[in-house]
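This part of the workshop introduces the protein records we will be handling. A learned vocabulary of local backbone shapes supplies the integers on the structure line. Getting from the letters to the tokens is the skill we practise here. As an example, a complete record with its sequence and its structure tokens follows.
=====
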Amino acid sequence: MNKRVAIEIPEEMYRRISLYGDLIGLDADDYATMALARHLEDLQDAAAAEAAMKRIRSGEDRVLSSQEFWRGLDD
């Protein structure tokens, strides 16, 4: 189920959202939704990367060279 969220944004931001939306055939609402979804994905990716770095720093995981990674996979 979709939910509606109303936000107040500066006029210039709305103009940019409308402009970029027009370029790809979306209205301002759909373009803003797409931009927000992409931003949330970026935040999730950054959190996953930070968690991976924490595991590497703690010794729980280790970094492999490309040679180590591919060794034995070509057999």
